[in-house]
Amino acid sequence: MKAKLITCTVYFHSAHLGQPLGSICLPDSCHFLGLVRAEQLIHFQQNPVVEDGDCLIAIALNPAISPHLGNCLQLRQKVH
Prior knowledge:
Layout: E1 4-9, E2 30-37, E3 40-43, E4 55-60, H1 66-73
Antiparallel strand pairs: 1-4, 2-3, 2-4
């Protein structure tokens, strides 16, 4: 099976906004590669804090999990 690369732009309503990339839980066999901010690639090892407008880059080693990974990356804040 081929791995599947998933990207997602972060907006103001994202549940991941303000979190270090390393603290975001992903499904099994999924990993962050980094993010793109202002046309700059920031590697996962730098553990950047997610900001509005960032493009998260993750990989699903099992492509069958990629829809679940996409849902995790697009998670929105709960509105009370």
